[in-house]
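Feature request disguised as a bug report, sorry. It would help if multi-protein outputs had a clear separator. Right now it looks like this:
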Amino acid sequence: MATVLAMFSVLKDHVKLKVSESDVAIDSIVFKMHYRVTFLLLLAGTLLVTGRQFIGEHIRCIGGAGMTDEQIKVINTFCFFTSTYTVVKHFNATSVELGEIAHPGVGPAGKDDRVVHHAYYQWVPFVLFLQAICFYAPHYLWRNVEGGRLKVLVSGLHMATLALRDTSFQTDNGVSVMSKAERDDKVRQIRVAFINRIHLNRPWAYYMCLCEVFNFINVLVQIYLTDWFLGGTFLGLGQAVAAGTIEGDMDPLDVVFPKVTKCVFHKYGASGTIQNHDALCVMALNIVNEKIYVFLWYWFIILAVLTGLGLLWRILTMVLHARSVLFNKLVFLMACPGKYSPWNVLTVTKEYHFGDWLFLYYIAKNVDNYVFKELLQQLAEDMQGRRAQRQNIVQEEEPLTQ
């Protein structure tokens, strides 16, 4: 048990069960399912298929009578690094039950009999690790583009409700709480920064949406990549396992991930004649592989559906953010629970570009509801002042044009 825990200890730095004071939300829950959940699942799968403490040797072959231990080791190595195979006509559950063949897919084969070569098992850890990197890549890109902009603005405001004193202090849990003056100054900084960057947040929002599209494309690509890697058997794997039958009432997992396979090793005899050693190989590694890929089938499907729904939601926010007061109230209520004036929500969001609206939404997700209500009120007053200023300029220019 200690060995198992030590092997998975490399993942502990990536698993966050508690939200720390410095954590800032810069993306959605669905986004996090890609670079946190899926990334960790694939890394865990990589560790499982490379750890021999679970199943022992990945492959063990029987090479015939009279072979020494060294010769058996050579055959094990040869069959693992080349490929093993199964005979299609012997995938028959009835023949196995009647004792006509020893194992599914293992039996005599003629020259014209169809065989399936299995070479994927040696590449499984590399492919799983590559897929983990692919699921992390959009987050890495977005984090570098975002550049910590939100964190600089909202840091320290998650406990702003407690900022009722003239001096800062620390709670019994060691959490720092700013003073009233510091809180008001922080809100002013957010307001000024937001006003000054109106219409400049478009690249910020575009990059986020682009990375969300990358997530959706990536999960679809990984589904088809895995299907190609497993020889076209992955797309229907979950359905076949649920149905329980495939190709002659065989267990689908025995067909895709055979536990016993064949391997032919050629060597020279004493007189220089080529000798063929027909080996029977036990594929212990496939016990782990089958469980990993059945789980990934269901997880990839769920993740693809949720990511697609996330993109539809993003499109909906683009359409309704400046048109519906009720929509804005519901969205900002989910982001930061509290009571807001409908007039404030309408005033702040009506004239903003989607990029400004999305930036304001993530500010709401990262600050206390009292602080956001105060910020929303001030932004509404600023917007009203800017609108009045534009109207005055227009009225002054009208006599000149006449």
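(second protein starts here, but nothing in the output says so)
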Amino acid sequence: MEIDVRLMSEREKDESSFTTESKHLLTPGNVVVENGLGFMSGHGTYVRDDKIFASVAGIAERVNKLISVKPLKTRYIGEVGDVIVGRIREVQQKRWKVETNSKLDSILLLSSVNLPGGELRRKTADDELMMKQFLTKGDLISAEVQSIFSDGSLSLHTRSLKYGKLNQGTLVRVCPTLVKRRKTHFHNLPCGAHIILGNNGYIWISPVINEDVEHSGGYAQCLEQISRSDRETIARLRNCVMALANWKLMLFDTSIQYAFEESLKYQIKHILKPENEKDIAAKVKFRLDKEISFIN
């Protein structure tokens, strides 16, 4: 019984080592852990006088004994299974280099893509010669992180039919930490648009996906003229995403749909006025908080 009490007291001591600041926004120099002897200092922290301090502005995270601070604004740090939106930068031998908002270019191997039509077979020398017909420099793609190389660069794949070359739409760049990790990052929103929320901070907004295009192997592109109403919906969604990002609200399908609904009283070009941004963000936050309190 004495051992259990001792273990319990050690656990309580560890929990109490966290300052109240560590649960909120930290700035460089803030104390994360008062007594850091039992902890390991991770990314975004440093140790001085047995205390762990934050070296970047962000939120403290704890995994067992490892303490780190996740920065609010940073380059994308990939994890296996992440959905990303990227741009082809270069076609190389049996691979494409992809810009994904990370520190290093990501790699998409020829062996990690579907062939046109979704055909599954071993890639041949003829396929290698046709690589530029599949994907060429400047193309935008959606993909998934398959693995992480030793230098931190990412290996991608587009083996699922939902991934591949992107059609007509608009690309929005936000801070990666604002994109909320969800079970799915592909959404057909009720407002009549399709959105891909890339974990790397690249968000793709386009007209609702046609099933024939979606199941064509990821290479067929629909270049038909987009209707005026669809263009207005895409433009409004783009400004709504920027308004939420400017006010540091998390981006996911529900928050973006709420922002779209709250923006309808403004003209598209007026959404990004500071006073209108503030109004939309405040109302979206109120609706999200109301949902959370109702669930609890």
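Even a blank line would do. Unrelated, but nice: The longest helix spans residues 274-295.
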